[in-house]
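Record 1 of the preview.
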Amino acid sequence: MASKNYYYGFQSKTKDLALVEPHDEECVVDRQRCLVTKIMSEFQEYLNERSNHLLGYLSNLKYHLTDLSPLLILLMNNVGDPFKQSNFGMHSKKIEVAVLDWFAQLWEIEKDEYWGYVTNGRTEGNLHGMLLGRNLLPDGILYTSKESHYSIFKGARIYRIELPLKEKLFLNKDKPAIINLNIGTTFKGGVDNLDHVIKTLEECGFSHDRFYVHCDAASYGIGPLFSFKKPIGSVSVSAHKLLGSSMPCGVLISRKIHMTNFSTNIEYIATLDTTISGSRNGHTPIFIWYSLNIKCRIGIQKEVNNCLTNAKYLRDGLSKAGISAMLNESSIVVVFERPLDREFIDYWQLSFLEKMAHVVLMPHVTIKMLDDFLSDLVQKREIWYGSGEVQPVCLALEIGVSNCDSSIHGNH
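->
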């Protein structure tokens, strides 16, 4: 591992990044352009190095979008509803709708029964799904796991949806239920059982018009874990995690019937206001469309299978080294003990939570990266724990006794 402090991010060797107006006008433009170009070259070099050590986040760096680079000099704004043209002509709405049609078919909802749009990421999709649930069931109570993405709790605050401390449906049968279903939790990669949730709702006396289910699918949107043939209301997925993209983006699909009283006509842009954002990125639908055409469903599935294989490889490697580790079924997230060294965490860009850290096995993560990481971790642990003065933490509560290699369990 290189000895370098990454905590403060990119540091230019050329100059401070603060924007300062020049004192003279002579040759200012040429001089500034030369300076900025040099700084951006340094920044690109920094990002290239960082991309070789990105292990802890749901970000897929395996994408090839260079064919689209000429479009980056053009402004594209998909303002308003994707299904209604605007008098702002520089947009990619037809391409956006083609992307939405692909996901609608994947998630088994008819073309004339769905509505959706390309979002700027998971949070926006979740906020929109929750807003639909709130509009349909104004006095509904939100039920979600404590493992849910932070955007769900943000949405509860924004929309002032009641969030019970104890998730007991039968105690609140007098109020409708808004359910957030996790199709891959953020930190542990756990998947909620949709059929079990719906069965529980029905057993507690909730008819289908008294509950709304939003599925937060994150990067798990390709697998057969949910379908609109079941009584769900909306699905959100992150495309930059699932497919890879140089810009954060996502997809939200909902039932068209739920949008009946949701839209507002905005005359001066000649379209409908139906989305969380007004102005919307017109490039990201093209990135998604391009990736879907190049990879196709079979190519994406191959990537997923490779990620699952690599997740087992890392889990087994950690276990063989006597390191507590957990991998949920059909997950690409390996949870293990949090490293003691913050420099190590920042170098490998690990996400951490209390006593845990995790690696997310995205398509760009290679076996060589994993071998380098394991070797680095084992060497560091010898420094941290070799004297015996400090012991590795017990993770039995967080990941289960069977996955915990703490000496107190005798699992060594």
